[in-house]
Design goal:
The protein has about 500 residues and is α+β, with helices and mostly antiparallel strands. About 20% of the residues lie in helices and about 35% in strands. A six-stranded antiparallel β-barrel has the order 1-3-4-7-6-5. A six-stranded antiparallel β-barrel has the order 9-10-11-14-13-12. Strand 2 and strand 3 form a beta hairpin. The longest helix has about 30 residues, at about 1-35.
């Protein structure tokens, strides 16, 4: 009897709680009856696109070994020169310092051909001994082989033997997109797997601090983070318009070094050209004109009798080059190349590089205030030809890329003799960048030792002790100064 009474009490208590809940819910719903009808907002859903396009996007994991002191450091890049930030979103996990230590990296890619060809970034697969690819709807993983890569545009082509036909992404036309157009990025940020983010095209033809001569990025505010590198940027028709490659973000990894709404993608039209050459020839060939160029500063416009401070100012013409044969002279201002306007000097290298070898092109210049058209027959850029101080040597652990100073380059830099090595690029957020080294600086000595060739420079710097300051004697324009660099 006592048990029955207890059961009744429990039932009653539960019933009271149910009534209380019903009363509470009714109280919350009562506000709806007094609210005026609101217009229904129907935003378009991107779910069908995400579901369909995600099939062609892959996650990439690489494994490899590196020597301590390699420029491939595995650290999320930090600040360069104060406000300038790293473009590259490496995401590595590394053990404590040791010789030939192992590293792993994460990235993304997308299928461009049903036979298993996949596009990604060079920095995702660089120095990897093993490339592992996984698909969204497939629990298996596949080992990919590197077909070829191009460090100068940060692109790579890999291939998996899947055993069947793969869903390939449709490549669009990056020339058609405009600032304000909606775009969507799909990739593998922070090991999270397939992740879709949406934004707009913020700008086109962007250069980034410490970048390369062929940079012409699409800027977007679609969220891109470490691990997104190599993934596709889609338009709302489901076409790939870019390859997500870089972020501009303050701080270091673990602080605020993530997406802040400024990301960069390689235009797909450039990607088509590069990967086609990699597949067909195993390498990328580029056109060569043979001029050293610099920006046209506003104060120069009047001196060179220009209406606007536009174009590429020819600082020097390399001997026996196509430009030399065509009659280019120092002081010419290139304003059009093959019918395309040259607004900034950085526009020219990519235009020349994309030109078919052996083709004759018309180049419009301003010489002494008068317009003139020259005809130049473009030749292939060889490794030994130093054009635009851009790309001819290996990078060292200091974060510098250096090049031998030829008589032509010495003359263009105003040097009395071709001594030292010229800095052709500075890796963003590297030790050299933090110390204030710039492209165009001439390194004369490293720790009191003269360096007159890239090989001599590498020999001196490769044995540098980590975290021990190094003294560099540098000539910048007409000044000679010392820089202290702390290798990372």
């Amino acid at each position: 009897m006592k048990c029955v009474i207890q059961s009744l009490v429990i039932v009653l208590l539960l019933g009271c709680a149910a009534v209380a809940q019903a009363e509470d819910k009714s109280w919350l719903d009562s506000s709806a009856s007094s609210r005026p009808a609101l217009p229904e907002v129907n935003l378009p859903s991107l779910s069908p696109l995400v579901n369909e396009l995600g099939q062609s996007v892959v996650n990439i994991r690489t494994e490899g070994k590196e020597n301590v002191g390699s420029p491939f450091s595995g650290e999320f890049p930090g600040p360069q020169g104060g406000d300038q930030q790293s473009p590259f979103d490496f995401f590595f996990q590394l053990p404590p310092n040791q010789k030939n230590r192992r590293f792993t990296s994460l990235g993304s890619g997308f299928v461009i051909h049903p036979d298993g060809y996949i596009v990604t970034n060079n920095h995702v697969v660089e120095k990897a001994s093993k490339i592992i690819v996984s698909f969204r709807d497939d629990k298996k993983t596949y080992t990919a082989e590197l077909v070829g890569s191009d460090a100068k545009t940060d692109l790579a082509l890999i291939k998996v033997n899947h055993g069947g036909k793969l869903p390939a992404a449709v490549l669009g036309d990056s020339d058609d997109i405009q600032p304000g157009d909606w775009v969507m990025a799909i990739g593998n940020p922070f090991r999270l797997g397939h992740t879709a983010t949406v934004g707009i095209v913020s700008a086109k033809s962007r250069k980034i601090p410490g970048g390369k001569p062929y940079d012409s990025f699409i800027q977007t505010d679609a969220s891109i983070n470490p691990g997104n590198s190599g993934g596709p940027l889609f338009n709302l028709r489901g076409e790939v318009v870019g390859v997500n490659t870089a972020i501009f973000s303050p701080g270091r990894f673990g602080a605020s070094g993530f997406n802040i709404g400024i990301g960069f993608a390689i235009p797909i039209n450039l990607v088509k050209t590069i990967v086609s050459q990699i597949k067909e020839k195993g390498k990328v060939t580029r056109g060569w004109l043979g001029v050293l160029i610099q920006p046209v500063q506003p104060e120069m416009a009047e001196y060179f009798k220009l209406q606007d401070a536009k174009g590429a100012l020819v600082a020097d013409v390399l001997a026996d080059s196509p430009a030399d044969s065509a009659g280019f002279k120092r002081g010419d201002v290139i304003v059009k190349y093959d019918g395309r306007e040259v607004v900034e000097n950085d526009d020219l290298p990519l235009m020349v590089a994309e030109t078919e070898i052996g083709r004759e092109v018309s180049v419009e210049i301003i010489r002494e205030g008068k317009s003139k058209t020259l005809k130049a027959k473009i030749r292939e850029l060889k490794d030994e030809e130093g054009t635009e101080l851009s790309e001819e040597s290996e990078q060292t652990q200091l974060g510098l890329t250096v090049q031998e100073i030829t008589p032509d380059i010495a003359r263009s830099l105003g040097l009395d003799s071709p001594s030292g090595v010229v800095v052709t690029s500075v890796e963003p957020f590297s030790a050299a960048a933090n110390a204030g080294l710039r492209r165009g600086d001439v390194v004369l000595e490293v720790s009191g030792k003269a360096v007159n060739s890239p090989q001599a420079f590498r020999d001196v710097t490769k044995e540098l002790a980590k975290d021990k300051p190094v003294l560099l004697l540098v000539r910048r324009e007409k000044n000679t100064m010392f820089f202290t660099i702390k290798p990372e």
